[in-house]
Amino acid sequence: MKDFEKMTKTQFAVFCLLAVFSGIMIGIGGIASLVAISTMGEWGRLVGACLFSLAIFAIMAFEMKLFTGMVASIPAMSVKHLWQLVVCFLCNALGVLLVGAISEYTPFGGVAAENGAALIAGKLDLEKWPLVAVCSSMLCGVLITTSVRSPYHVVEKGLSATLGVVFPIIVFAFCGFDHSVANMLYFYYLGEFSWKIVAYVLLTIVGNVIGGVALPLVMMLREKARRQGGRS
Q1: Can you tell me the distance from the alpha carbon of 108 to that of 86, in angstroms, rounded to the nearest whole number?
Q2: Distance from C-alpha of 37 to C-alpha of 33, rounded to nearest angstrom
Q3: d(Cα 148, Cα 138) in Å, to the nearest integer?
Q4: What is the span of the domain harbouring residue 88?
Q5: Could you tell me if residue 78 is inside a domain?
Q6: Terminus-to-terminus CA distance in the chain, angstroms?
Q7: C-alpha pair distances (Å), 34 with each of 187, 206, 225
């Protein structure tokens, strides 16, 4: 990764645009998932999870910048590179909010808005919502990292890599785990602002980071153990 000081204006602009487009894909996937849940009965949740997974597949295919995907690189990053995570999240959020605004003028915008608002309101009304936010987002972080790192670990590429990217996303979306970027769409539909909402966003970011770095840290320890074993 490049230092902020060494990155040209063009490179920085491209980084931000890729992050915004990543948010756009998450927003579109989120709307598709909400519409499926609303219109397809018992199978809607599973179909919605599958539809949402296409957002991550597109992000991986076009090498866009997604905050929860970049989290997996934290163990190998220096402190001077952490600014990228902040910029990436803000640009992701901008992309999601843009899709939320546009969706109001689409045929399924009303359905998505109603269900998105109800979904996040239900989480905020839980008695132990801070613990729910952290634990749920931690599990999401684990699955996101599994998704974005799996293509580098499967023996054969092609279908195996594709399934490795898509399947963990289907699981997290089906289970309703908290994705800090996707949640911005639901908060947009809720149409409210409070410090409780800010706290929920921050807690999900923390949870996504904790869960997202867990597997990379284990992989680093494994590689260290292998090197030590080779020297013995």
Answers
A1: 32
A2: 6
A3: 16
A4: 9-231
A5: yes
A6: 33
A7: 14, 25, 45
Give, to the nearest 10 degrees, the angle between helix 129-149 and helix 109-124. Answer: 120
Contact 196, 124 (CB under 8 A): yes
- Side-chain-facing half-sphere of 146: CA atoms under 13 Å: 16
Which domain CATH number covers 36?
Answer: 1.20.1080.10
Query: Which two three-digit tokens encode residue 120?
Result: 């996040």
The total of structural domains in the chain comes to 1
d(C-alpha 80, C-alpha 73), whole Å: 13
- Quote the CA–CA distance of 131 and 200 in Å, as a whole number: 10
Q: Which two tokens stand for residue 95?
A: 């992309």
Instruction: Enter the tokens of residue 44.
Output: 């809607």
CA angle, 96 as apex, 35 and 68 as ends, to 5°? 105
pLDDT digits (tens, 9 = 90+) for 46-62: 999 999 999 999 999 99
Rounded Cα–Cα distance for residues 184 and 99 (Å) = 11
Q: What is the pLDDT of residues 78-119, one digit of tens each?
A: 898 899 999 999 999 999 999 999 999 999 999 999 999 999
